[in-house]
Amino acid sequence: MINNTFIGVDLIPDNEAERLQSLREYEVLETPPQGAFNHIAAMATHMFQVPIALISLVDTDRVWFKANIGMEGIESVPRGESLCSLAILSSDMTIFEDAENEPCLLANPLVSGNFGLRFYAGAPLTTSDGLNIGTICIVDKMPREFIESDQKMLANLASIVMDEIELNYLKRKANREEPAA
């Protein structure tokens, strides 16, 4: 059972079973850090001048970080607390320019607690089947504007991340199918 801290928002999409199956098929959860993902997250912090960028995968009851710049040492957070859980509910980007002014976030400990999250922008990681398995997101402890050109750049980074996830999956699949010599 998810402890949902988002007031008035159901965190479980209608396609949850299919979404989770797709996430598991990619075999990306609990995998070691990889340079490409870390580089993309690091680029995002520089491009958008934010202290935190994450590549997150939304699992059954947690959000696991494939890449984590700015919150090192934290591998996952409960699904009911992570704003990435909201970002997978739509194919559109999720943006909170000032989280303190968002009624659905008033009980969220990342916003109302010591962490002090004020800005969040998350672009969904969407499979070729149209399933949102995670996000690339940027976070700041100060409110900020997120203009259309920024949104396009973050969406492009999400496409690159998803391409990398799919490429890694295809490589693993090809290695399993390769006959023994």
What does this structure look like?
It is built from 5 helices and 6 strands, in the order H-H-E-E-E-H-E-H-E-E-H. It is of the alpha+beta class and 181 residues long. It has a single domain (16-175), classed as 2-Layer Sandwich (Beta-Lactamase), CATH 3.30.450.40. A hairpin with a 3-residue loop joins strand 1 (52-58) and strand 2 (62-69). The longest helix is centred in the last third of the chain and has 30 residues, at 148-177. The chain starts with 15 loop residues before the first helix and ends with a helix.
What's the CATH class, please?
Alpha Beta
Estimate nothing, just give the exact number of structural domains: 1
Rounded mean pLDDT is 94
**Assembly category:** single chain
Q: Would you list the SSEs in sequence order as H and E? A: HHEEEHEHEEH
Given helix and strand content, the structural type is: alpha+beta
**Can you summarize the main beta sheet?**
6 strands, antiparallel
The fold-level CATH name is Beta-Lactamase
Reported CATH architecture: 2-Layer Sandwich
Shape by Cα distribution? globular
* Distance linking N and C termini: 47 Å
Report the β-strand fraction as a percent range. 15-25%
Query: What's the total number of strands?
Result: 6
Secondary structure layout plus pairing:
Layout: H1 16-25, H2 35-48, E1 52-58, E2 62-69, E3 76-78, H3 84-87, E4 94-96, H4 109-112, E5 119-126, E6 132-140, H5 148-177
Antiparallel strand pairs: 1-2, 1-6, 2-3, 4-5, 5-6
